[in-house]
UniProtKB/TrEMBL annotation, chain A:
Gene3D superfamilies tied to this protein: Vaccinia Virus protein VP39
Coiled coil stretches, renumbered: none
GO MF: rRNA (guanine) methyltransferase activity
Protein name stated in the entry: 18S rRNA (guanine-N(7))-methyltransferase
Family note: Belongs to the class I-like SAM-binding methyltransferase superfamily. BUD23/WBSCR22 family.
GO biological process annotation, one example: rRNA (guanine-N7)-methylation
Pfam families: Methyltransf_25, WBS_methylT
Quaternary structure and interacting proteins, as annotated: Heterodimer with TRMT112; this heterodimerization is necessary for the metabolic stability and activity of the catalytic subunit BUD23. Interacts with GRIP1.
Domain of life of the organism encoding this protein: Eukaryota
Claim: Repeat is one of the keywords in the record: no
Catalysis: reaction(s): a guanosine in 18S rRNA + S-adenosyl-L-methionine = an N(7)-methylguanosine in 18S rRNA + S-adenosyl-L-homocysteine
Residue ranges of every copy of the 18S rRNA (guanine(1575)-N(7))-methyltransferase Bud23 C-terminal domain listed in the record: 230-306
From TrEMBL, chain B:
GO annotation, biological process: rRNA (guanine-N7)-methylation; tRNA methylation
Protein name per UniProt: Multifunctional methyltransferase subunit TRM112-like protein
Organism: Holothuria leucospilota (Black long sea cucumber)
Subcellular location: Cytoplasm, Perinuclear region; Nucleus, Nucleoplasm
Family matches, as Pfam families: Trm112p (PF03966)
Gene3D superfamilies xref list: 2.20.25.10
GO cellular component terms given for this protein: nucleoplasm; perinuclear region of cytoplasm
Family recorded in the similarity comment: Belongs to the TRM112 family.
InterPro entries: Trm112, Trm112-like
Domain of life: Eukaryota
GO molecular function: methyltransferase activity; protein heterodimerization activity
CDD domains in alphabetical order: Trm112-like
Keywords: Cytoplasm, Methyltransferase, Nucleus, Transferase
Region (Disordered): 126-149
């Protein structure tokens, strides 16, 4: 595991220590993070769910983050799209999607939260589901995925059988399959520390996503917000810029990962795909299996071809 | 006075959902067992419906419509030039967006596992032991490769 993190750091080329800032993410009643108090289906009971209709400040904050996440999704402006809202809760982010003319499906593990969504008469279809069990729709269903204040819940093991890295991986890899090529998933989330951030991003990359974290208002403890922006099937995406950073696209307030899953395969002791070693190994394997006749390795094996080809 | 018009599971959602019970190879399409359903008028958005047509499994939609007895004039097949065929799109819209299942079950075609629908909300939660391995098994990642075993 340690190796994993070290390598990840190398790849991102960014010192994640500065992300050790305290994230403001506590409930009003207590100073502890909700994820530490109870499993989500227990924490989001009727009382907690009710706040999402009655606490106007909370509603305002969630809506603002949803609007920003939708902006980061960069859906085609004039086309009605089909979007998945993960941890949709009472449907606030869904309402923001409806306002933008899009259609959506919301999933959440808490029935009381979904009950509130029904009561609010949101437009989207809803279903009860645990993102850690995976997301199961036909390939290429969604034009985009949005998730507000939910992802950090996956970092906790709420049952003996829960293994957070596995649950994260299952979530991201199945999610990837449901998304259209070139579409994005944007998660506003509250990682507890740099370790969690690394865990989340590394599992997302392993599942095939590229992307990174956009930090809005990094210098303000109150306004600071983090958005994990993932791209399905895009090799060199341009990460959007954080708000209030005064930075251009490659500013220091984004953590950019171009490392594809191939790089992460290294962690499992296998050569990088398409690397020289990988090609060699594959040829070797094929030879052993007696398949095809391969050119002997040359000094050109595994090198990038020049443009001329 | 406010009349609560609760939202229900649409056939559009049904057409996209698959079963994910551990070990199931072909969890699509889920069968529908209906105890209560409703037809509710929804604004017709021809552009959205047109955009969704290529993503649908039309056969599954048609069969779902048959099993709910709401076929009406739904075309058994996707017609050519559907974007400009308002009658076709309107029927697709009616079946996809206006038919709502309130109470019943979604049933995995392979394992027979029943997922209850209550108040129009399917409960897709699995029991321990039903959760599959984390994996790329999802057929459609359309990743070219053998890269994750
Ligand atoms: C802070 S609320 C945010 C709700 C909504 N997105 C909003 O912005 O108003 C977090 C939501 O994540 C949901 N959640 C937590 N863990 C989950 C999981 N494993 N699967 C699905 N939903 C989950 C909770 O039930 C809760 O509704």
């Amino acid at each position: 595991m340690l190796n994993f993190i070290r390598l990840f750091r190398l790849i991102s080329g960014i010192n994640l220590h500065r992300l050790h800032t305290n994230f403001i993410h506590t409930t009003m009643a207590s100073c502890r993070r909700p994820e530490h108090q109870a499993p989500p289906e227990v924490f989001y009971d009727d009382t907690e769910a009710r706040k999402y209709t009655s606490n106007s400040r909370m509603i305002e904050i969630q809506m603002t983050m949803a609007d920003r996440a939708i902006e980061l999704l960069a859906l085609p402006e004039d086309k009605p799209c089909f979007v998945l809202d993960v941890g949709c809760g009472s449907g606030l982010s869904g309402e923001a999607l409806t306002e933008h003319g899009h259609f959506w499906i919301g999933m959440d593990i808490s029935k009381p939260m979904l009950g509130i969504a029904e009561e609010r008469e949101v437009e989207g279809d809803l279903f009860v589901g645990d993102m850690g069990e995976g997301v199961f729709f036909r390939p290429g269903t969604f034009d985009g995925v949005i998730s507000i204040s939910a992802l950090q819940w996956l970092c906790n093991a709420d049952k003996k059988t829960h293994n957070p890295p596995k649950r994260l991986y299952r979530f991201f890899s199945t999610l990837y399959g449901t998304m259209r090529r070139g579409s994005r998933a944007v998660f506003q989330f509250y990682p507890e520390n740099s370790h969690q951030l690394e865990l989340i991003t590394s599992q997302a990359m392993r599942a095939g996503f590229s992307g990174g974290v956009v930090v809005d208002f990094p210098n303000s403890t109150r306004a600071k917000k983090m958005f994990l922006c993932l791209f399905a099937g895009l090799l060199n995406p341009q990460l959007p810029t954080g708000l209030g950073t005064g930075q251009g696209p490659q500013g220091s307030d984004q953590v950019a990962y171009s490392g594809q899953r191939q790089r992460f395969r290294n962690l499992k002791g296998k050569p990088l795909k398409k690397s020289r070693d990988w090609i060699k190994e594959k040829k070797e394997r094929r030879r052993r299996q007696g398949k095809g006749d391969f050119k002997a390795d040359s000094k050109y094996s595994g090198r990038k071809r020049s443009k001329k080809f | 006075m406010r009349v609560t018009a609760l939202r229900r599971m649409k056939l559009l959602t049904h057409n996209m959902l698959t079963s994910h019970v551990k070990g199931v190879k072909n969890g699509y399409p889920l069968k529908i067992e209906v105890n209560e359903m409703k037809i509710r008028e929804v604004d017709f958005n021809p552009e959205f419906i047109s955009r969704m047509i290529p993503r649908l499994e039309w056969k599954a939609l048609y069969e779902a419509a048959q099993s709910l007895d709401v076929v009406g004039n739904l075309s058994p097949e996707v017609v050519k030039d559907y974007e400009n065929d308002e009658d076709f799109l309107k029927e697709a819209h009616r079946v996809l967006m206006e038919v709502e299942v309130i109470k019943g079950f979604l049933i995995c075609p392979e394992s027979g596992r029943k997922f209850p629908i209550e108040n129009g909300i399917p409960n897709m939660l699995l029991n321990e032991g039903e959760v599959g391995d984390a994996g790329p098994s999802q057929s459609g990642t359309s990743q070219d490769d053998d890269s994750m075993q």
